[in-house]
Write a structure and sequence with these properties.
Blueprint (H helix, E strand, L loop, with lengths): L6 H12 L3 H6 L1 H26 L3 E2 L29 E7 L9 E6 L4 E7 L4 H13 L1 H9 L1 H6 L1 E2 L27 E7 L1 H4 L4 H22 L5
Antiparallel strand pairs: 1-2, 2-3, 3-4, 4-6, 5-6
Helix pairs in contact: 1-3, 3-8, 5-8
Length: 228
Amino acid sequence: MTTYFSDRSFRFLRALARHNERAWFHAHKADYEAHVREPFRRLLADLHPDVLAVSPHYRADPKPVGGSLFRIHRDTRFANDKSPYKTWQGARLFHERSRETAAPSWYMHLEPGDCFVAAGIWHPESPVLRRIRQFVVDNPAGWKTAAHAPAFRRRYRLGSQEMLVRPPRGFPADFEFIEDLRRRNFIVLRSIDDATMTGPRLRQVLARDLKATAPFMDYLCAALDLEF
């Protein structure tokens, strides 16, 4: 078993939150590389076989550019907050066709006191969202198994951010899962405590999450005519 992150990973991110400035970041870039970026890349490389065991169509790519790891730099062009850096590090395990079409993904988030793993599709465009909603209406038994099985819901919660005020038009008001159709994001997630993130069993824990959320991901892939 291998450890990836440490208290120094969280220490750097806390300090970055206090000193979110380019000069400070460049002065401490070696700490970022040593305690955040490179450990995350090692984790991605080690997770790749676990990803392939769940789905041969998904990738954990440790490449420094164009891989699974998100950039620490924020896009501030249209944001009121001009802070140049994110105060967390994230990575996604993506579908092999994700560059050509909308696809669900797994996501891992490193942030002091707010680490988590998630699965699903975030902020899909309206046509994609309608396809998923219609698929849920057409396949309610599969949705119940994939998203509402009791054992699954004890471990994972359905993301509730950005719900519609009322159910979308054109869907039956008496549908069993009408409240789920209000969702703008179809994701499930589970918090991970800091001790687990810095402990020696992190890869095994995440591999278990990949396997446990695979039916949910499979369902979303089916909704979008993607291989799983």
